[in-house]
Design a protein that fits this description.
The complex is a heterodimer. Chain A is mainly α. Chain A has two domains: 204 residues, no CATH class; 142 residues, no CATH class. Chain A has 17 helices and no strands. In chain A, α1 crosses α16, α3 packs parallel to α16 and α9 packs across α10. The termini of chain A are far apart. Chain B is of the alpha+beta class. Chain B has two domains: 202 residues, Alpha-Beta Plaits (2-Layer Sandwich); 50 residues. In chain B, the strands form four sheets. A three-stranded mixed beta sheet of chain B has the order 8-1-9. A two-stranded antiparallel sheet of chain B has the order 2-3. In chain B, β2 and β3 form a beta hairpin. Chain B is elongated, with a radius of gyration of 28 Å. Classes of the chains: A mainly alpha, B alpha+beta. At the A-B interface, α1, α2, α4, α7 and α9 of A face β2, α2, α3, β6 and α7 of B.
Amino acid sequence: MKLNITLPKFLRIGLLPTILIALMGIAFVVAMMRYAFGIGVISDLSYSYPWGFWISFDLFTGVVISSGGFLMAGTVYILRIKEFEPLLRPSVLTAFLGYIMVAIALLVDLGQPLRIWYMMIHWNGTSVLLEIGICVMLYLTVLAIEFAPVALEGFKLQKWAHLIHKFIMPFVILGVVLSTLHQSSLGSLLLIQPAKLHPLWWTPILPIMFFTSAISVGMAMIIFESSLSSRYFQRGLETHLLTKVAKGIPVALTIYGLLKFGELAVAGELGYLFTSGTMSVLFWAEILIGVVTPIIWFSIKKNRESANGLLTGAIIVLVGMILNRFNVSWLAVKHPDPLFYMPTFMSNVKYFPTLPEVAVSIGIFSAGIMAFGLAAKYLPVFEDEHPAAAHAGD
Amino acid sequence: MTEIKHHAYLFDATRCIDCRACMVACSVENNIDMDKTRIWVAGLGVTGTFPDLQRGTMVYHCMHCEHPDCMSACPVGAYTKAEDGPVTYNPDLCIGCRYCMNACPFGVPHFDYDKGIIEGAFIDKCTFCPQRIYNGQEPACVQTCPTDALEYGDREELIAKAHARIAAHPERYIDHVYGEFENGGTSYLILSHVPFAELGLPNLPETPVNEVSEQVMEMTIPFALTWGAILTGVSAGVAMYDKKKKEKAAADEKVEASK
């Protein structure tokens, strides 16, 4: 007998969404296990390594790839360079989803997730983490307001969208201030570890380094998300705008590189560049991939003007800078001496993320991609698809 | 016992015989599982070549720093430094972020990785036995130590005592009291016959590790206000410029039209 199953229309989904939903499901099960039995059950985190893959990937990477949002909001609303408007909505959406993913991941990583709101009432002014917590909460609100007009237009509530649009300026300024604080304070988070973080990375200007690198990552991310979504949804690509964005990347990266080597020279730590074994290799990998190669790549006109050249360059920047975030928050952090943790059964002086740990991050990331796809499909995020709706809010 | 103004410990590595009675005493006194003990004993084993053999043991728990990094790092202020020495942790405020574990250069705070959200996963560390020291008794680990390797007293007095001991037996000790100045001073002082790095102690400057981070935090709010003001100014300026440009364009158009 031939089995003939016809799925109802709403269940007929493509291959990519199916995979994404499966990954989310796995992450959900793993997260439930963690809530029931503790973080140790699913992760390799230990007394020596209280922070691991979740912090490096979900927090540090998640935040830095969301920096396109404030760059575009600042360019379009504050500097009033209106030609970039087509890139505004996708960048704000990426930032909004990025920050939601950060918040969800922190709920898995925190020992007491139900107490996350304590950060609103119990303040310790010397804590960088408090600044980060408050920035995440406030900036999520700001991003929700910045994105609200798009959602409202999608639901045919043009009047409300227009009303929010009218009063958006203070929120845009607040958003840029919060982003500046937040991007740089992720660097400040490591200032308290001069004894643990390798001197090639630890510097008092870590917050400035983080901010300058976030700017180049933001630009790369704008190129990346526009290119990918244009491929997936088969819509036009704003190549002429992305070319202008790509011009900014070598400038930002040059400033970053000069700061980085300048600081090492001033601190008299240039010697570590060649004498620190694995650390030197990691440092040069991050500099060559994330700084030198993209500067050369985007200085070539041909690469800036072709869709493939733009996407390749953006990916190089992202890989290099994400490696930087992993180095700073995990790979270059010296774990305390094994002897110091004498009862070896209590501690684990090596750390390598476990499969369930990575599965949580991948699941959350899949949810982000899925949400981006749904929003791009059903809301007026990209202008050329919904020309009428996109201009209604202006 | 004389009145103690600033509670402190003194540990003498030359006297420790690695019996680990302090670990047991701490577990019993504070009702802690042995595998989550707040006090750890690290045996170096025998080092050197015959006949110059040495053995070393390091006993440590919370250093009760004078400028605690855990307290500086904790976002919700779950740590407090008492004026008379002890650094204590309040589980009722803790959100489980584990930033204190990152911040502590000694790796002291530890976390319940084996507990879910129903039981509640908390940080734990030495409390300086407040139930004992404020009732005129020594902390449990000190009282049980059979060789007086661990001692308890006033910080100033213990520092003087440590220096006196080094002076009396310069051949036996390294001429340094670890914790007198390290990390801005700690209330757990250490005397040793082997280099402190061999005992697993980090080489720390006299400024506490939280110094730079606290300085940056102080600048945050002024910076945010200035940056916000600059952005408001810029956006107002650009808006005015745009408006003028539009008006001018409109005026030009009029002129053009009237021609």
